[in-house]
What we know:
Layout: E1 4-15, E2 20-32, E3 35-40, E4 50-53, E5 57-61, E6 63-68, H1 84-90, H2 103-119, E7 122-129, H3 135-148, E8 151-157, H4 166-183, E9 187-192, H5 201-213, E10 219-223, H6 235-240, E11 250-254, H7 260-268, E12 272-275, H8 277-283, E13 297-299, H9 311-317, H10 324-327, H11 330-335, E14 352-356, H12 368-375, E15 381-386, E16 389-393, E17 396-397, H13 404-421
Parallel strand pairs: 1-4, 1-5, 6-7, 7-8, 8-9, 9-10, 10-11, 11-12, 12-13
Antiparallel strand pairs: 1-2, 2-3, 5-14, 14-15, 15-16, 16-17
Zinc ion (ZN) binds next to loops.
Amino acid sequence: MAAKVFHNGTVLSWNEDGQSIEVLHETSILIKGDTISATGKNIEVPSDAEVIDSTGKILTPGFINTHSHLWQTAFRTLAPNTTLASYLKSYSQSSQAVKAFSAEDIYMSCLEGYYEGLNAGVTTYVEHASNNWDLDVVKRGFDAAVDGGARVWWCCALDDREDVTAKDVFEYINTLGKRSKDNHPLVSLGLATDAMHSASDEQTQHMKDKIRELDLEAVTTHDLGGPWPIGHNTPSIAANKGLQDLDVPIIFSHGGLITKENRAALRKHDWNLSITPESEMHYGHGQQTSRLVQDHASLGVDTNWTFSGDILTQARLWLQSVRNYLLVTRQGGRAVRRDDIGVLKVAAKADIVCFNGDSPNMVGWTDPIAAVVLHANVGDIEHVMVGGVFRKRNGKLALKEGEWSAFSKKFAEVARRIQAKVKVPPQPEKFMGVTEFGDVETMTTRRQA
Ligand SMILES: [Zn+2]
């Protein structure tokens, strides 16, 4: 692979000593293989290097989405007003809706999810792969993670279902271990579990043994907390079960009601909270206390079919502040305990996003971080590179095979066929199957007589 140079851009670099962003103007980035090998004003450029003129552009690290379930992408716009109660009953991995998908549909759905992110500058995912009702469906989800071209911590859900048992999941991951390391350097293997709180000592021990044996690189789980009847997988529970002995990063998703004790456990064990701003607003999770633990937090998207799938929107929604820049870059890297992603510096992975700074919504910028976090949109992203390979070039996705137009036609067919099969059901009788619904405030735009 020939060396590549982003020449003469404004680089949002990382200062290791100050642990802060360093803005470098008129600076070039040299990439050799999958890694940044030099940055500076007058770097030595190999004669055969491919030079990308970045004059007037802003170069940032690729963005990191620490929570997604991409198999659902084919549902896009199916249920824009769904509640969390309806979601679990009607569109989740435990619902009848999964019957609408073939394994091939899951592949297409996941692939489009990765493409949506790459187009928007997301170069790294922590995928909570809840597509686990059938082993072929699990497998095609993994294939999409590989073929999508992003860097993925692919965390296979461990739910011990009737058709796919924990044993099946571990056996399958075992077959991937070598394949992944040899042939798919961008995909790391992990585990997703939502039964952390209810697992027996024996089940927990078995999971820990397997995480060690299979050399898994992340664990992720839903932590809703507060009054929610499900998703009580808190940092304190993980600590009580001794998961800190594993020396594996754990990513807790949401935590909108995270308590002081749980915030302390998160910090103590260097675990991370993935805050998903749009999802938590959409479903009404509550976001009372997650802001208090931003030193151990990053941002995620969650269900990209019910709202936007780009991480810039999440950054903009969360506190509406330029400080969110680190939550979608450096902090995402820390979530998976990696110091070489989410930053632009020598020896970091070449995961780079290039913004056109000259669009109607960006022109005139003097603060490049504010320009990116508060003014840019997906249309301003000209190039996206993952591990030294362009995945978006001159505003167009660079697919592994074929053209976007061919893929999009195929995906649209899958999405429409699936959505025609999945009925939009009425609100379930019981909330999450366990309790009565209370009275809720209703609002209407219809004028009252
Ligand atoms: Zn989720």
